[in-house]
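Notebook p. 47: complex prediction with pyridoxal-5'-phosphate.
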Amino acid sequence: MKELKIDVTLSTEKKQKPSFDNLEFGKSFTDHMFVWNYTEGKGWHDARIIPYQPITLDPAATVFHYGQTVFEGLKAYLTKDEQILLFRPDENMKRFNRSNDRLCMPELDEEGALSALKQLIQIDREWIPSGEGTSLYIRPFMIATEAFLGVHPANSYQFMIILSPVGAYYKEGINPVKIAVESEYVRAVAGGTGNAKTAGNYAASLKASEIASENGYSQVLWLDGRENQYIEEVGSMNVFFKINGEVITPELNGSILEGITRKSIIELLNYMNIPVVERRISIHEIEQAYRDGVLEEAFGTGTAAVISPIGEFLWKNEKMAVNNGEIGPLSQKLYDTLTGIQNGTKEDPFGWSVQI
Ligand SMILES: *Cc1c(COP(=O)(O)O)cnc(C)c1O
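Predicted complex, structure tokens below:
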């Protein structure tokens, strides 16, 4: 892989590191950040690693007004013998460019961005926690910086990478969450931006999550925006169901975000010879499976939690328990296998792990 030429300015004062035993997700950041500018006609320029610091933008910058911005999320793991592993980072870069395309943002040089990411992690490697279940969360993102209030794709951008040490998602074993099926608000519609990792989708999702949370539910199960019956995602994770021995996940339809964990779980299930299908699945089918006693397991998938088992669905005032509110054997097995591959304690027959 070609190495991107980066101008490096190291920080003169190292920050005080937080206690790695008790990290809150996304709260502390490492000593350095990567910045890369894009100007129409000139392309990408001024790749640099600088001390972590605030950025200065014109108040008229497009990102503030019209939300032209894209992000990614992945993790680096420190193995027992002090190697640094990334999980399928090329997939994140590909998805970044699919999101960019949807938002009319410039294509990123994927190899260059990956090279920058690796160099930044090397510089801040002391920030990768080593405890069980911990990792360094990586947040690449791009913003439109042109100072202009007309609605059009901006002519200048900044691509940045910041890093944040994160603790174990499950500190006291995996506890299944309670999920409220959302029948008023929608997260995204086919033809919209649901399949792009762009800020507006998350802003649009907050209201329903807030209401669910007030009612004692961790997150919402999103239904499609056209017929209000087909299942899309759970919170900001993809969703899987095990019904009568078969694993089902909603097929990609334009409004569902194409998760890398989702893709990996499907590949893993195929490898384990467990039947898995991608197809439309309605909330009515889930209700029927529950009544028939064949709704065996349900779980969300995403980089942050990897697998998040669901113990109950609330649907029209009816509480539908899944596996007595306990984690199911398949969910546990998938969690152990995938996290094992990611942190280097289990064999990786797929070549997913990339050593820095
Ligand atoms: C990021 C994200 C996911 C999960 O994607 P991963 O690549 O598995 O982390 C799922 N849904 C939404 C809406 C997301 O933003």
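Notes: The mean pLDDT is 96. The radius of gyration is 21 Å.
Next step: compare against the earlier run before touching the bench.
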